[in-house]
Amino acid sequence: MIAEGLRIRPAVPEDAGALAVALLRNRAYMKNREPYRTEDYYTPEAQAGVLADGGVRWFAVRGERVVGMATLSGIVLGPLRSASLGYWVDEEHTGLGLATALTEEACRAAREELGLHRIQAGTLLDNHASQRVLAKCGFEPIGTAPRILHIDGAWRDHHLFQRILHDDPPPGVPADWAPSDGPA
Question: Starting from the edge strand earliest in sequence, which strands make up the sheet with 118-124, in order?
Fold first, then answer.
């Protein structure tokens, strides 16, 4: 349950302006958790490009104001059927359950709408709040990636997590297909 007046909805291309405003409003707050961004990143034009990059996104909104976002990116189908999850919440809206609600919606849609098997997420080592969100949403730790992302002026280590959404075979593979005992 999220706070009254807040809702989760899919992002649409017309949200570029509202997203740019939200990112600009939270720029200083997210600086130590996000990669370097150029000035034009915070424009509606740049965010229109982001919204069209092939990722799938959901917004937490209060009225028309964007106050959080979850993104599934790097979506791979075929036998892997996986994606990476990222999310953020507006500084003024932390502690209201938005990150959990966004993560759960992304996982639901990943399974039910995209037919994915697995979601991966990473957090900075000291981002305990995000680690709690992932644990609450059924993610399990799978390791630590050294110097995986350049954030706030340095290459930063991340703890990696995954959530297996189901164990059904990929589309087109018969449910009763059994693995062989090895190469023939």
Answer: 6-10, 56-62, 65-76, 82-89, 118-124, 154-164, 140-151
Rounded Cα–Cα distance for residues 81 and 111 (Å):
10
- Residue 22 C-beta-side C-alpha neighbours within 13 Å: 22
Q: How many CA atoms lie within 13 A of 182 on its CB side?
A: 0
Residue 30 and residue 61 in contact, taking contact as beta carbons nearer than 8 Å: no
> Mean pLDDT over residues 31-50, rounded?
96
**Cα dihedral 142, 147, 150, 155 in deg (nearest 10):** 140
- According to DSSP, residue 18 is labeled H
* Residues 120, 82 contacting (CB under 8 angstroms): yes
pLDDT score of 2: 79
**What pTM value is reported for the model?**
0.93
Tokens found for residue 110: 């990943």
The region, left, alpha or beta by phi > 0 then psi within -120 to 50, assigned to residue 172 is left
Nearest-angstrom CA–CA distance, 153 and 155: 7
Question: Which residues contact residue 142 at a Cβ distance below 8 angstroms, ignoring those fewer than 6 apart?
Answer: 120, 160, 161, 162
